[in-house]
User: Fold these one by one.
Assistant:
Number 1:
Amino acid sequence: MHRREFEDRERARREAIDLYMAASFLFTHSLDEQRMYDIVSWARKKWTSRQENSVSILYNQLMKKSFRDTSWQKVAPWYNRITEHGQGHYYHQHVVIPGVIRLLALDQHSKILDLACGNGVLAKSLPKGIEYFGVDIAPALINAAQKSDQDHKHKYLVSDVTKPFQAPVDFTEAVMILSLQNIKDPAKALQNASLHLKTGSIFVIILNHPAFRIPRQSAWGTDTDRKIQYRRVDKYMSPMVIPINMNPGDRNSEVTMSYHFPISDYSKMLKDAGFVIEEIEEWTSDKESEGSAARMENRSRSEIPLFLAIKAIKK
C-alpha cells in the first residue's frame, strides 16, 4: 500500500471515529437523536465508497446501540410490506384510519402530532393542507415515511416518544395508532403527548383491544355442541411483557415486544398525564365469512371487538 493511500484511509478512519463519538455523545445525553442520526448517516454516505469500511461498521454499531430499545427498527422491512409501504393493511384502511379521522374532527386549523407514527400510515389519509408531525424511534420506518410522503406540510423526526424531543408545543390533535402497546413505558409517552398539546386538544389512542386481544393469553375457541365461536382469555389484569415472533414458523425470525396493561391502567395513565377521557369506542371487524361456519364466525366477529379507541381531551 502506498503511503499516501494509507494516510488517506487513516484520515477517513479518524474522521469517522470523531463523528461517531459526537453522535454517541448526543445520544447518551439525550440531546438530539435526530442530529445524531443525521451525522452518522452523512458520514456513512461520505466514506463508504472508500476501501476503508470503518464508517459502515461504526454506523451499524451505533444504530444497534442507539435504537436497542425498539424491536421495530429490525422488522421495518416486514412492517413496510404488510402495510403496503405506508398505505396501511386491511384494518388500517377499512376500520382504524376512518375511525381516527372521524374522532379527530379535523378542520383547516388542525395541527396533528403522530406519536410512534411508523411509516406514516395516517399521514397518507389526511386532507390536504393539514399540518402533520410524525415521530418514531425507528429510522428505517421514518425513512420509508419520508420517501412516500410528498406533502410539504408533513414533517418527521427520529426520536423516542418516551423521552424529550424537539417539536412544537401547540398541536391541536395527537394520535397514537396501534403503537402504545409496543412501548415499554406508555405513561411517559402520554406525558410527552400532553407537553406538546394545547389545552383543550384532542388525543386519540387506538389499541388492539386489551381485554380480548392479548398475545399468548387469548385465543378463539369453538363450542361445536352450541355451534358458537368464543374468545378465551387466560390472563388480563396483570401487566405483561410478551415477545412476538414475526414469523412463527422461523426460529430465526425477528421478535418484537408487546406490553400489556388492563384498561384501568391506561385510564390512570391518561389522568396522571393531564387528560380527561371523553369517549371510548370498540371497533369490530367488517369482514364476513362464507361456508358452513359463516353464521357462527360472523356472530362472534360482530360481538367481540378487535380495537379499543380512546378519545381524551387535554385539561
Number 2:
Amino acid sequence: MLLFQRIMYGVVFLLLFLVCLINIQQVSFNLYFAQFTSPLIVLLFIAFIIGVLGGVLAVIPKLYRQARKIKELKEETKDLTQAAKTEGIKEIKET
C-alpha cells in the first residue's frame, strides 16, 4: 500500500510539473489600479491559494461550533454519570 501511495504521489508531482512547463507564457492581469505581467502558472497558483484560503475561512466557524458542542456534551455526560453514581445506579450503559 505504501508503494502504491508513493507511486501516486510521483505521478501527481510529474503531472503538476508538466503543467508548469506548459504554462510558462507571459500573460497580463489587469486590475482597476494596476497591471501585472507574469507567467500563467504564477497566476494560476495565486488563484489556487486564494481559493484554498477562502475554503478554509468558510469552514472555521463550523469547526468552532462543533468543538463547543462537543465540550458541552462531554460536560453533560460527566454530570449525568456523577448523578447516576450518587443515586446508586451501579451500571451505566454507554451508547
Number 3:
Amino acid sequence: MQATAGSLLSLTPRSRFYDEGYNDGFAHGQIHGLIEGRALGREKGYEMFEELGFYEGFALTWKKIYESTGRSEEFVSSPKPVLTVC
C-alpha cells in the first residue's frame, strides 16, 4: 500500500483536531440555535399579540362610542365589517 500526500495529511493530529472541533462546534451551534430561535419566536409572537390587542381595544372603544351616540349610521360603512368581528 502506497501512501499519498493527501492520505498523510488526513492522518495528522492537526487535521483530526480540526475535524473534531468543527463537528463539536456544529453540534453545539445546532443546540444553541434552536434555543435562541425559540426565544426569538416567543418574543416576536408576544409583540404581535400586544399589537393586535391594541388594535382590538381601539376598535372596541370606537364601536362603543358609535353605539352610544346613536349616530353609527352616519359614519362610513367600511369600518363596520371590522367592528362586527370584535
